[in-house]
Design brief:
The chain is α+β, with helices and mostly antiparallel strands. It contains two helices and two strands; from the N terminus they run βαβα.
């Protein structure tokens, strides 16, 4: 994946969005990043039903803050 050039050695929190089921999106993204030596610290998926859920949004923010402080 040429778009991932230059990310080696960095940390990441990954998330995906979808209308229903996530399928293989998170595992594929994580695998691609780890192949570029990116440390994936957290992963989360948001379905359409999660859009208004503040707990889910706060969960993502918490992962980002934790990753930043790591």
């Amino acid at each position: 994946m040429a778009a991932l050039k230059g990310c080696e050695g960095k940390k990441a929190v990954i998330y995906v969005t979808c209308n229903g089921q996530f399928g293989e999106a998170l595992p594929l993204l994580k695998k691609a990043l780890e192949a570029r030596r990116v440390q994936v610290l957290a992963e989360i998926g948001f379905a359409k039903k999660d859009v208004g859920d503040m707990n889910r949004k706060n969960e993502l923010i918490g992962h980002i803050v934790s990753a930043y402080n790591a």
